[in-house]
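Sanity check

After download, print the first record. It should look like this:
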Amino acid sequence: MLIHERYLRREVVLATLLVLASFLGLFGFFDLINELDNLGRGNYGLEHAVMYTVLTMPGRVYETLPIAVLIGGLYSLTTLSRHSEITVLRASGVSTPQLLRLLARIGLPFVVLTFVTGEFIAPPAEKAAQELKLAARSQLLTSEFRSGFWIKDENDFVNVGSVTPDGKLQELRIFEFNDSRVLLSVLEAAGAAYLPPEGWTLTDVTRTEFTDRGARVSRSDSLVWQSGLSPDVMSVMLVVPERMSAWKLWYYIQHLIDNRQETGRYEIALWKKFTYPLACIVMLALALPFAYMHNRNAAVSIKVFTGVMIGVFFHMLNGLFSNLGAINSWPPYAAALTPGLLFMFAAAAMLWWEDRR
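Expected structure tokens:
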């Protein structure tokens, strides 16, 4: 590794880590303040609020790392520019394409870190945080509907009143239909626990069958229910799609496809799993034009503030295109790729303009 590459890498990495630590401290403080409203509900105490905040930190790292790379890159590059070090590099024969390749190599570890955090660290931590809160507050997981939440399983419609933090179902109703959409039976159970490979074990079961001769009711203490549903599918309700791992997103998308349900939001989240980490390199490319600005009197803080605004705009644009893509049924790859491509084109245009000058 050349001396100038090692020097530039050190400056960018240190600045980025400092910005990331600042973001985590800020978000952690506000998340903890927000959790104070839950103190005293059930057994939820200050230690639970602190642990919940800590467990949500990997998700914050995943969300803010590209923005931290942008601000850290802006700060380090503009500082080098202010000391004429970028000018010396260019005068020594280091061209813009070479600088871009150098920044890409510097940004690659951040790409890997973002992907690993979003795929292997943030999803289980987020799930553990939600389970901790539900268990400490002695609450059950329910949907916004008074009747609980509904799931389609092939020809059956499943209504679950609530889910406990350990994945058990309560107040379960299964409406069984045939291929002609004729209701065959309604199965009601007080609870259900998943015991692979047999399936769900239902307790206190009442089954009402509908035939041409009328309705027939039968009862049993327990019953094994074979279904394509699993705790992995149920856990989707604990973690938003953007915080889920790629394999769990893919698994749930297949479940939705098998049941002929809308998959747009989850497909966009899956595409973003692979495109969002690349934003770290795009952000460093976007920071480079600011280092080419030869206004020595311009304060570094102004450029850093500009970086903050660009980062906020990128975050908002990411969410906007995800929502627009889901609402308007855009191709998932288009909704996931568009924000990054727009910023990449903006970086290319700014570099072209600075080179012309």
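If your output differs, re-run the checksum step. Summary of this record's structure: The chain is about 60% helix and 15% strand.
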